[in-house]
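call fold(seq) -> tokens
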Amino acid sequence: QVQLVQSGGGLVQPGGSLRLSCAASGFRLDYYAIGWFRQAPGKEREGISCISRIDGATYYAASVKGRFTISRDNAKNTGYLQMNSLNAEDTAVYYCAAGEALYCDSDYSPSTADFQTWGQGTQVTVSS
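ret:
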């Protein structure tokens, strides 16, 4: 079964950190770019980061640049999103996704239509 299984969300205080994981099963994640999206209540799903499959080129939305770091471990068939200096505006459901034939760099803005396989989503709540 082709799927992405997410873990690592939860409740964190402002200024804290979390690491989200996205483990692939049923397919090789290293054949795909990995994207991270988030959706806050009443808002559209926003693409916040992406990492290419070939050279590890990355994209970050302005809202997370300098605070979040995307990475991948192809040996573990897993992608990660390290989130630091979290604030209340980061509260959302976070989704990982795998996209074929994508190159993620600073000129690319992730679109949900570009990704074929999605994780189940994980809640991140930033609150004191």
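DSSP finds no helices and eleven strands in the chain.
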